[in-house]
Design a protein that fits this description.
The chain has 429 residues and is of the alpha/beta class. It folds into 2 domains: 187 residues, 3-Layer(aba) Sandwich (Rossmann fold), CATH 3.40.50.1950; 194 residues, CoaB-like (Rossmann fold, 3-Layer(aba) Sandwich), CATH 3.40.50.10300. It is built from 15 helices and 19 strands. The strands form 5 sheets. An 8-stranded mixed sheet has the order 12-11-8-13-16-17-18-19, with helices on both faces. Strands 2-1-3-4-5 form a 5-stranded parallel sheet, with helices on both faces. It has a two-stranded antiparallel ribbon with strand order 6-7. Helix 2 links the parallel strand 1 and strand 2. The structure holds cytidine-5'-monophosphate. Cytidine-5'-monophosphate binds next to helix 13 and strand 16.
Length: 429
């Protein structure tokens, strides 16, 4: 028993060390991020090689688009060797489009960074052109687009370039730089590509400006297993998918996320800290160990309500008692979410309710009984959604509101739910 608690303590202190590391080092935000690097024609194009390597050093996956004039300054072969992927050059090439078309490229990216961005690129993107691969991908993008201009200081200072810059800024593009200093042409002024170190840092910061920035979220997910003997247990069909999707969405919204997870086959989402547990009691203890840090608690786990009163030390033999039936006595498990919701200074607490009928009524009852701030009800009577499925449809109930989110992927649903929780928290001040 002592060993078990020591292991749990070690897991929890490892989480705090990791969280401290994240707060000190925003570059960890780049891990496993997909960066689409657009290179346009300018002397600073050679710096795209170093930029690619530095992104990779921080764990990002980089793919490259080059304009035709960029290939006059640095070869696609160099960028292919560094990025370890073919460089994308053409819009209307059937071969490359069939491998990864311009829309797929835009969807693939978590961030599009154009570095260096020429005056010509700024003008064409600002005026909505889509006549080459790079402008088309930028037009199709739904992820953030960052632009690092680099050009002669007089070109940068021209009213038309500044107007284009301001237009792009007003449309939501992130403009990084340019820096001031000695230029390749020998002139001095603003127009140098932002230093590679700063480009890396600013790009990483773009991933952490979400609605839950600075918040810590604790989420329980998956089933619990309640031991009958060393080889048998009682559990349920929860896959953990909804809890893991929420953990990912909360992390993408800038939160530090601690995921207390029962046994699942899922990979831990990037930047999420998972504490593995087996039984309801383990889950309760793990939550209690970290809950002081939480601004938000989301109980998604399908926690077993009861456990066998005594788990046998040895495997129960079929004919042990000479009886043809086996009686197990159950005792109630702790209610993890209620224990959180009834704490003084409790976090914003969200529960899930798996129901087969009268979703809103039962959800509202749970809101009151467990003293929650929000209850998310889903219909587990329909086996094509909810448990184990990739899609879900939910009803969200708070003290004063009720909202239905129709059938959608657990990922999309999680993003919507995280935004709703963030809105509630900012509303509460
Ligand atoms: O009471 P019921 O199981 O219907 O409530 C479901 C909600 O309560 C979920 O959010 C679930 O994670 C949480 N729960 C818990 N501890 C329990 C039972 C349920 O945290 N022992």
């Amino acid at each position: 028993m002592k060993t078990k608690y020591y292991a749990l303590f070690r897991q929890c202190s490892a989480v705090f060390t990791d969280l401290a590391m994240i707060m000190d080092n925003p570059l960890v935000n780049l891990k496993h991020r997909r960066i689409l690097l657009g290179i346009t024609g300018g002397i600073a194009a050679y710096k795209a090689a170093e930029l690619t390597r530095r992104f990779q050093d921080h764990g990002a996956d980089v793919r490259v688009i080059m304009t035709r004039s960029a290939t006059e300054f640095i070869t696609p072969l160099t960028m292919q060797a560094l990025s370890k992927h073919p460089v994308h050059l053409d819009l209307l090439n059937p071969d490359t489009e069939s491998v990864m078309g311009h829309i797929e490229l835009a969807r693939w990216a978590d961030l599009i960074l154009i570095a260096p961005a020429s005056a010509n690129f700024l003008a064409r993107f600002a005026s909505g052109h889509g006549d080459d691969l790079l402008t088309t991908v930028c037009l199709a993008a739904e992820c953030p687009v960052a632009i690092a201009p680099a050009m002669n200081q007089a070109m940068w200072a021209k009213t038309v370039t500044q107007t284009n810059r301001n237009t792009l800024l007003a449309r939501g593009a992130h403009i990084l730089g340019p820096d001031e200093g000695l230029q390749a042409c020998g002139e001095i002024g603003a127009g140098r590509l932002m230093a590679v170190d700063d480009l890396i840092l600013r790009s990483s910061e773009l991933f952490s400006t979400g609605t839950l920035q600075g918040k810590t979220v604790v989420i329980t997910a998956g089933p619990t297993r309640e031991a009958i003997d060393p080889v048998r247990f009682i559990s349920n069909h929860s896959s953990g998918k909804q809890g893991y999707a929420l953990a990912e969405a909360a992390s993408n919204a800038g939160a530090e996320v601690i995921l207390v997870s029962g046994p699942t086959h899922l990979d831990v989402p990037e930047r999420v800290h998972r504490i593995d547990v087996i039984s309801a009691i383990d889950m309760h203890d793990a939550v209690q160990n970290v809950i002081d840090r939480a601004d938000i608690f989301i109980g998604v786990a399908a926690v077993a309500d009861y456990r066998p009163k005594l788990a046998a030390n040895q495997k129960i033999k079929k004919d042990q008692n000479g009886h043809q039936s086996l009686l197990l006595e159950f005792v109630e498990n702790p209610d993890i979410i209620k224990a959180v919701a009834t704490r003084p200074n409790r976090p914003f607490t969200v529960g899930f309710a798996a129901e087969t009928q009268r979703l809103e009524t039962y959800a509202r009852q749970k809101l009151v009984d467990k003293q929650l701030d929000m209850v998310v009800a889903n219909n587990v009577g329909d086996t094509s959604i909810g448990f184990n499925a990739d899609v879900n449809a939910i009803t969200i109930v708070t003290n004063h509101t009720s909202q239905v989110l129709p059938l959608m992927s657990k990922r999309a649903l999680s993003e919507r739910l995280i935004e709703l929780i963030a809105a509630q928290i900012s509303h509460q001040g």
